[in-house]
Structure formats: structure tokens, C-alpha cells
């Protein structure tokens, strides 16, 4: 090797670096690249399966939940008032005694994959969840029949995640322990069908008064539908809902090819009400006999079902302490039907409240076995309200006082008056009771003598819409239309509503909701502990003026028959047109009581010739009933009379003077002499009667432009929707 000229070794040039020789390049697989994620998921799945397996093997099958316990109602004195439970005891029947058409209907409607799944149906749950999402809140069941049986017999109905997990686990264990027919038999003997009936045999008795083995397709399809909605689906309460539930079941049976569409149409053509028996009479366990307490018990049961599921009310073993005073209840029933004791007499209703709004007595009818319509609570008792007549006038008066109008404000009180455009744009003609004319009269005296023509002018002055608002604030729950005629009591209200309203006057403007329940306990836990709360809805000074006016009604006006010797009474009479209804509502310092009488069939039957009274008005028999009850129920009161309130305030525009030779009333300017008949109750008549007529010219009417009036609401009767052809919808399993 030679040295270079620089003396260095002459080395060969270094070759360029080359990569080592390799085979073809291959990309890593997707699974390999995410191997850590898959590893974690695998561990999680293994842990979940292992945990589920441990739960299934380690958690023992719990005993079935206790059977139904009777709910007991107590009166205010602590005595047992009534018991609530199913109308039938549970009658277990074997699966071979249940007709196949009924089991097929239940399976088709509730769980089509019952004979396939292992206790839970994940696809059914997912499908139901997706349906709920798409229908924006329209719920669709995803539970299997096994899960429903487990819920009824083991875990209860609490809506918690842990309960659902336990339900699913126990369902799987049940499926391993029992065969499908055993599960179905147990389910059909425990499921609730409404009317207090648990199990298919009890339901068959309650709805058809027959043995379950005698049921056919029309009965089976209805019972299967009731499982979804046992309370709302009773044809006695909602015929449309009952038909819809049956239609869903028939559709499911056709969809699963259990029956044909022709068979379904044959059943669909038969109204459910044609083959379902009348609703059984509850209250047979009422211990307070002969006092009409069944109506109160039924109302308490209705209030309970507003708070809790019907199933819990009837089988939950509740202890319900009510407000009913047994002594007052007997006195109230005797006051009403001890007077109306003859064959053909009208019905009567009474509600009495103590100062805290507790119902101490409620008379809803003569005989529960004959009629279950509670006439004291309006639509909440299965009937309707009745027109209040002049007992509604204090509500108008309260609004007038609230607007600063004086009780001494003078009004024209002719026998007949015409108010331009006051009746939804038409002229409104109003008559006084029996054509009585009062000349020029103060608002105070017009209240005492119940002068219709004065109150017609007053409602136009204050505004019907304001009166409606005042009525709701004071305690009226019924829907009211702001028509001018509301001043004369043409709106339907309940006896309970009127008692509640007058209690607000008695409490000097403080309103407290009427109640029938003081306390509820269950399994040593307190569910409800009544602590009444009052709310001021009317200024005290305004209430004092209304009370002063109502005092004059009883002391010297149309309600003198209601006066008591042991206590001061405030109140108001009321009679509707053509004597269809008669009222007296009043109060002492301890009790507020509303009395109504009339014929249940409606106002078309007048109150004529009853117990020597040719034409019954509020100041006659209703005032006497009030006195009969309050003489015994209201304790003596020696409290000095209230001071006379300040009666000053603004007046309203004057009306033209009236000359009435026929009525003996003359008027010239501000001087008036009235020789009208003694104070009587009134009637919101719309037909002409003898007496002078005053037509108010438009410039005098206040306000000049009448308030806008809302037309009356048209009430239509709901009937089942007929179906001429049977269209099969898609019915998801539940």
C-alpha cells in the first residue's frame, strides 16, 4: 500500500452505505394496530359476563311479594270509616281452566315472543326504546310477561335502575326454574285488571259476572287490553279508551294470525258496553251506615288515586285518616233527607267545611245503592255541576268592592231592564224575581234583596272577565265563560266549590283549599301529613264589605229563614231560572256550609209544590236545611258583632228614572219611593214578566264600549268511534 505525497496511506474510496437486503414490506393489520383497545374490551366483557354469572349463581330467588293488603279509612274521631280493596278476592285458577283464546290474546298483546325468549327480550326493549324516541314520548312497553310477573310478585313497581336489574336477573332465574305454562299461569293470576280485580277469574267476575272458562273472543280481547290501562280503560268511565284498547288487542291477534280480520270485525262491531256489567258498588265496607257516607268514601278514593296508582290504593295496606266528623255527617244527612223524605222529593246535597278547609260533612245523594253520582262535587263525582243562581252574586260584589265601588252606590232596580250590546253584542234583557220592582236602590240593599237588574248593571261595570278571575281566586274550580249572565249564576259549579268560595269570605279574604284527607301512612311510613296553608286572595277591607252585605241578607233580606239563635249567620240565597235549582250558602264563625236541592235529571224539572212550598227558592227549603244542620253542628258563639266597615267608595253613572204604577214604585230625580214586595230570592229569568221595563241608552252604559265576551263552550258527548272496516296496524310486542 503506497503513501501519498502527503505521507498518508493511499486508501481506496469508501463505498456508499447500502441498506440491508429485506423481503417485501407488509402493513400491520387493523386488529393488530388496535390490539390494546381490543384487549381492554375483552377484559371488560369477560368481567361483565363473570359478574353476571356470579349474580345468577349467588343471588337466591327471593320469596314472592306479600299479597294485597286492605287499605283502611278512618274518620276524624279515629273510628274506622271504611275499607278499600278489590271487589273480588283473588281466585287462582290453573292454566287448563283458562280458555286458550284469553291466553292467546294476552300473549299477542303483551309479549309475542314469550314462548321463545329466556325471560328478557333485548330486541324488544331496543325496539320499544326506538319507538319511544320516534314518537316523542309516546311510551311503549318493552317488558316481557316474565318480567311483568316478577314485577308484580317479587320486586314491586319502583322506577329505579336497581329494580330493573333485579327484575331482569330474577326473570332469567324464573325461566330456569319454571316452564312457560307455569309462568303464564302465575302471571294471569296476579295481574291487575281494574275494578279491584287481581287475576283473570276475579276480572271475569268483575266485568262479565261469569266464570273465566266461559269467556269468548270479545271478552278475552277486552280483558287483555285492560292490562295496559286498567284504570282508564274501564268502559264505565271512558268508552272510547275501552274500544281503543280492545282494538289494539284484536289487531295484534290478527297480525300474529291467531284470528282472521273477519273475526276481528265481528267483535269490533259490538260496543264494549253491551257486554260489560255495571261497575260494582264500592263502599260496601263503609261502617257509618245510614248517613250517606258512601259518597264521601268514594270521593276520598278518587282523591287517593290522584296521588297514587290505583293498585297501591287498593292493595297497599294504607291507613288513611280523613276529615269526616261522624256526628256532623249524621246531622247533615238528617237535615237534607230528614226534610226531603217523601216519595218523589227532589235530591239534595250539602258540604260543610271547618275553618281550615276540612270537609266535616258531605251529603252527595239519597242512596248510594240507587245512584253513585255524587251531587256534591260536580264532575269529580261522576255528574255535572249545577247553575249557582244568585249565590254567585257575592263574587261579583267582591270584584266591585275590589274596584272601589261603594256599597251605598245607587242603582235603578226596575222589574225589567235592557242593557244594550251586553250579551255578546246583543241587547240583554234581565228580569227581577216575580217581576218585583225596587225603584232606586243601593248596592247593599240590592244584595240583601237579590235584585237581578242591579247586578246586571254591575257586571257590565266591573267586567265579566274580572268576575271570572275573582271566582277562580276565591275557590271556584269549574271552567267559566266571561259572559255577562255569569252575574246571575248561569255557570255550572259544584256544592264543594261554593262552600270553598264562601269559606274565603268567612276567613276575611284568606283562601285555603278544601281537603278530605288529614294523614296517610303505609308500612309505618308517613306519606301525607296535612298542614293547611292559607293564601290571601282578597284584601281584608274588601272581604269585610262583602261579609257585611251577606249579613244583611240573613238579618233582613232573602235569607232570614237561615238565621240561628245561637250564632251570627252570613249567607246568600240562590234560585235558577224556572226554579230548576235552589241554593243557600252561608257560614258562622266555625263552619261554612253550602246546600243545594234539585232534581238529578236536570233543570227541566222545576221545584214546584214540595212540602207545601208552591215554588221552591233558595230562601225556603234550602235555607231551612241549612238551619236544621247548623243548629246542631255549629257551636254557640257569643262573639260581639263585627264593626260596620267603611261603606264609602265610588259610584256608577245614574240611570233614567222609572215610573211604575203597576208595581207601586215611583221615581223623580233622586227621590224614590218603593212599595215592592218583601225581600225574596231571585231567578235569572230571561223571559218577560209583569212590571216596568227600563232600556238603558248606550251613552249611560258603563263601560261605553262593552267588554268582549267569549261565546259559551260547546260541550259534546264523546261516543265510541265506529269502525266499518278493520285495518291492521303494526303492533309491537310489549
What is the overall pLDDT average? Answer: 80
Strand content: 5-15%
Count of runs of 4 or more consecutive helical residues: 21
Helix content: 25-40%
Shape: elongated
Uncertain ranges: 136-140, 654-680, 683-734
CATH class of the largest domain: Alpha Beta
Return the CATH architecture of the largest domain. 3-Layer(aba) Sandwich
End-to-end Cα distance: 98 Å
**Tally of separate domains:** 2
So, the CATH homologous superfamily of the largest domain? DD-peptidase/beta-lactamase superfamily
User: Cα-atom Rg, whole angstroms?
Assistant: 37 Å
Query: What fold name goes in the CATH topology slot of the largest domain?
Result: Beta-lactamase
Give the class from helix and strand content and strand pairing.
alpha+beta
* Total strands: 24
Biggest β-sheet, characterized?
5 strands, mixed
Describe the protein's architecture and organization.
With 734 residues, the protein is an alpha+beta fold. It folds into 2 domains: 434 residues, DD-peptidase/beta-lactamase superfamily (Beta-lactamase), CATH 3.40.710.10; 187 residues, Biosynthetic peptidoglycan transglycosylase-like (Penicillin binding protein transpeptidase fold), CATH 1.10.3810. It has 21 helices and 24 strands. The strands form 8 sheets. Strands 2-1-3-13-14 form a 5-stranded mixed β-sheet. It has a 5-stranded antiparallel β-sheet with strand order 5-4-18-17-16, sandwiched between helices. Helix 3 runs parallel beside helix 9 and helix 15 packs across helix 18. The longest helix is centred in the N-terminal third of the chain and has 24 residues. The chain is elongated. The protein starts with 29 loop residues before the first helix and ends in a 39-residue tail after the last strand.
